[in-house]
Amino acid sequence: MKLIRAALMPMLLLATLAACTGENRTFGERVRDTVDPPSGPVEATGRAVDRAVDRVRPN
């Protein structure tokens, strides 16, 4: 049971961060997605998480 819980917690955190981004992408992010589209769902999720973390991080 502990192993299942330990495996699900990071996935829940990443899904929450990815959901925060919405469609409020900057012009540069839209250009990057057009010129170099994500090659699959894992890369798309990774980009969404990166963008969510960058928006939460203070400057």
Briefly summarize what is shown.
It comes from Pararoseomonas baculiformis. This protein is an all-alpha fold and 59 residues long. It contains three helices and no strands.
Structure overview:
The chain has 59 residues and is mostly helical. It is built from 3 helices and no strands. The protein has helices at 2-20, 27-35, 41-56. Helix 1 packs across helix 3 (41-56). The longest helix is centred in the N-terminal third of the chain and has 19 residues, at 2-20. The model has no long low-confidence stretch (mean pLDDT 76). Residues 1-21 form the signal peptide. Keywords: Signal. Residues 48-59 have a biased composition (Basic and acidic residues).
Topology:
Layout lengths: L1 H19 L6 H9 L5 H16 L3
Query: Portion of residues in helices?
Result: over 70%
Number of beta strands: 0
Termini distance?
Answer: 40 Å
What is the radius of gyration computed over CA atoms, rounded to a whole number of angstroms? 14 Å
Region (Disordered): 29-59
Signal peptide: 1-21
Keywords: Signal
Organism: Pararoseomonas baculiformis
